[in-house]
Amino acid sequence: MKILADSKSHFSIGESVLTPEAIAEHAAKAGYDAAALCDTMTISGMPDFTKACDKHGIKPVVGVRLRIVPSLDKESKQFAVYPKLYILTNEGFEIVTKLISLAYEETHFHAVPRLTWADVIDALKHAKGHVSYSTSTLYSAIRDVDALDATRQIAKLLTLSHTFVEIVPANSAVWDRQAEVAYDLVNNEGFSFLLSKPALYAKADGSQTLGHMNSVVKNFKSGNGFDFKPHIEDYRVVTPSQLVVQAVEQSNRIKVWNDKSHTFHLRRYGDGWKNLCDSCEFKWQKLDVSLPKMAPDEDARLWELAKEGFKKRLSEGSFGHKPSDLKPYAARLKYEMGVLTDMGFSGYFLLTHEIVKWSKDNGILVGPGRGSVGGSLLAYLLEITDVDPIRFGLIFERFINPERIDLPDADLDFMSTRRHEVIQHIKDQYGQDRVAAISNYTTLGSRAAIRDLSRILGDMEGQGLGKFIPEEQGTAISLERAFEEVAEVKAYALSKPDIWSTACDIEGVIRSLSVHAAGIVVAGEPLIKRAIVEQRKGEHVVNWDKRVVEDMGLVKMDILGLSTLDLISIAVRKVKERTGEDLDLLKIPLDNETVLKAFGTGQTVGIFQFESGGMRKLLKDIYKTGRSISFEEVSACTALYRPGPMESGLLDDFVAIKQGESSEMYVHQSTRAALEETYSVIVYQEQVMQIARDLSGFSMAEADILRKAIGKKDADLMKTMSEKFINGAQAGMIEVELDDGTKKTVHRLTKFICDDGVKRTVEEAQEDGVDITL
Predict the structure, then answer these.
(1) pLDDT tens-digit readout, 646-666
(2) pTM of the model
(3) If exposure means fewest CB atoms within 10 Å of the residue's CB, which of 106, 308, 440, 461 is most exposed?
(4) What domains sit in the chain, N to C, each tagged with a CATH number?
């Protein structure tokens, strides 16, 4: 069993330019059976690394490189050593998350997270069989007398077979001297043997690339004396046989054995690799959802609240609208509740309801609803949102897809000046140790890569090159594409190939960590069981970003502070002071002519998303034809005034049709129902879903998968679904008679909720003799 035992990824910020995926790929190509990821004081690369190892058919081993200082004194300059812990079991994972979380507490953190040997020994008292310890490579524990004593104590806790002394066969005096000490420890004290070498970059000139990346991270100009220079300039992934050859050459240099055939020691190299791989049972995998327990029977409690909301909400209405026919609402509620209870999401809705209700009860204005949560009738009935999804044709499956286990994600807007009160309430209610913000991993985009590299190298031309790199849907294209498509970029790259090559190598590499602007997680158990909990500016933050928290079973809630809500609150208070009237915002109709005229004439300065010059011009262009503008057209403006629709011409088409300069055009009559409101122009993601249903017979859950594939430009997934889409479209439409005597043309494979609450296709309903509900 051959393991690449020491690799660091770009999560060790400034210490490596390899992504976790690249490490797995290079290890597999080099002929290793396994690879170990050991980033400095973090395990954030673990999910990506595990997935990549699975893809390339090698075993993932997850470790962490510790930073150990003699004391936690913040005044003196101290020499740190960097041993490693390898995670062997699930219990070992928790030992590591707790230990690294400790390093981020105020008592320990000073510029960087730190630990003492006492912290490590205390954490490992009951860790036998759950972690392995290694003296490490760079700044190894064998370089320090106190560290060696601590290593001996740890060996007693974990056993000698789980205490590795690493031999690094690099050709330098520093590494040769370290190897002499390592061989003595192995031979005289019985420690296990591990042959390894740091893997930090992929190319032959990677040392220079890494040095420049380190300068970018620290914002040092090259040549100022602070340049990062490794001990040697060969920290690439080498093959197992190359590594063994280098070890033999080193042993000959330092004369540590007399056996010229090296048979005994060669076997020990293999034994060390095998022992580490065989003892590692831990493998990262997605975890079950962890949420606070909101009621003894969460499903029953949610049904109770839903029934109360059904009576109250639909009798009062909102924004000038009260439904006259409640049958569609009853059928929709029954369907949503069935999905939620089947998927186990009742607790999530109860949690969200509690947070919103507490905020409103305490005078904190909450937004009416934004994003996909607006498609949920239940959210409307529980007053989580104020948007009636049936009135506006919003789709529940965009929020929760019953055919995919995607966790709900409700975007909640609160008054900006009181957002902190909401978060403090959540912490008080559910536990300080169970609530935290979410990390952001800030990577170097194409423009940032060339700009920042040029800055630290003093290249003025490169610093201005970013303006020539075009954007695509709001994001700058890659350097590789810019080279092919932009003459100015190509000319620069050819004139300065070294800088250009390095910029390409660091594009996509993490340069810093930050905190998600709105996202927090609320768990049903201490977060330390699922994440490293860091402290940044006094705030608890999990080490995972928004992509990974869901995989760790942590539900992200967006608690966003919106200054517009503060303005509305001030306006309501001013009206009360001047007129004595208590304004009920939910009773203001959306078709108020005075308000719509103000929008149509561009009097929207200070109104969120409508104050830019371009948006006000768009409103005027729509209004000038016939001197009218509807609420639906105002809503369409917010969706169309974005890079994608503007670049594709959809915005121009919409305006031209509204002004009478073009005619509506439907590629098929079955798309009319979805697009009629927006003059045949696709404006909303819900329209894409409805077209997939009406034209090709997709279920709404399938249509949501297609929507996501389009949104993420997932060519493989779109290709997979294209055959079904085409076949469904070719299958044709049929005419259905509704129970009220009217007729409607629908696709024969379209699924509907029938009167008995069961979801069937039109054909199935006809065969069963059951009426459908449209």
Answers:
(1) 988 999 999 999 888 999 988
(2) 0.85
(3) 106
(4) 3-200+235-279 (3.20.20.140), 299-439+515-567 (no CATH), 443-510 (1.10.10.1600), 591-663 (no CATH)
